[in-house]
Amino acid sequence: MVDFDYLIKGIHALSRAHRVNTMAGHLGAAVVAGYFIAEQHPDLDPRVYAGIEGELDRIIRGESVFSPRQNASINVTEMFAPFPAEPARPNLIDGIAAALEQNIGETRESGHNVIFAAIAVRALKDHPDLATPAVTDGIRRLIAGFNGVKPGSGYYGKDRGRIDGRKVPLPEDKTFPPYADLPTMARVVANELIQHAPERRDGFGGLWHVINHGAALAELARHGYGELATKGLPAHHQHVQLWKTVPNVAEELGPETPTPHDPRTSEFWDTDTIRRDRARLDHRIKTLYGFDALVELLEDQPIREQANNKLRYLM
């Protein structure tokens, strides 16, 4: 298993991320997600858990591209430090959901508002003794920081460059109707992964965030916020629409390639060639957790297996 102390440290970092910037939420979210992977898969080879803990240690040491810079108000060590003891108030978890309700209706920074909030909600609902006023207020502030921000951006090739999502027109696509429900959304995401994983599309968080945004909606519904999750479906639909506008630039930047082994196996972690480019240190962990959280919505086993095989392109 992954040591429970990682979940505690991750929650503390999430609650302090607002003191740096919204993207600093990656640190705590990834560390908490690493703990969740062990909950999802309690019978893996111990070397897998050791490998995951090694990645979490890298994040805690400040190796993430989202770590605070030298002039930040707090450093990475302070982000993960314990809070002074105070009584828990689990009712304050609803304040995180209330903050998310203010910005869940549109795509915000590739869905990070929903991703960070859902990871925090799951951790605190499962472990309400961690839901102290300091922790819940900090996470609420982090989520409120996404109010009014852009949906993200995409790279449209060397001639057009990177374009702000607010300037990207979304063509009407009658073949991609609004989602009827969460399982419909999950099927769409799985099919996008199956069809497009080898392509190099650099924008709106890529398939990492299309998956994790959807997983976050699923987790909100599982932990008592079903109406809020449903309210977030149009924003995820918008997220996928934006991602679909980004061209495959494999000829320019090279194609995506799969890892030789599944990250749930010891063979994946026994190599010295684990990829950590392009923010993969944080996103591999979150997406490994997020994928399994998402496909719980799918009853179609062949689709689940096909999507799982393509997941190695993101690892």
SSE arrangement:
Blueprint: H1 4-16, H2 25-40, H3 46-61, H4 76-79, H5 93-101, H6 112-126, H7 133-144, E1 153-155, E2 162-164, H8 182-196, H9 206-222, H10 226-231, H11 233-245, H12 250-253, H13 266-269, H14 280-295, H15 301-310
Antiparallel strand pairs: 1-2
Helix pairs in contact: 1-2, 1-7, 2-3, 2-6, 2-14, 5-6, 5-7, 6-7, 6-9, 8-9, 8-15, 9-11, 9-14
Please explain how this structure is put together.
- The protein has two domains: 141 residues, no CATH class; 162 residues, no CATH class.
- The two termini are 20 Å apart.
- It is mainly alpha-helical and 315 residues long.
- Helix 2 crosses helix 6 and helix 6 runs antiparallel to helix 7.
- The chain is globular, with a radius of gyration of 18 Å.
- Helix content is 54%, strand content 2%.
- Strand 1 and strand 2 form a beta hairpin.
Keywords, please?
two-stranded antiparallel sheet; 315 residues; globular; 2 domains; 2 strands; single chain; mainly alpha; 2% strand
Largest sheet: 2 strands, antiparallel
The largest beta-sheet arranges its strands as 1-2
Tally of extended strands?
A: 2
- Distance from N terminus to C terminus (CA atoms, Å) equals 20 Å
The SSE order reads HHHHHHHEEHHHHHHHH
User: What structural class do the secondary elements suggest?
Assistant: mainly alpha
| Count of spatially separate domains | 2
DSSP helix fraction: 40-55%
Point out poorly predicted stretches: none
Mean pLDDT: 97
Overall morphology: globular
Strand content: under 5%
Number of helices: 15
What is the radius of gyration computed over CA atoms, rounded to a whole number of angstroms? 18 Å
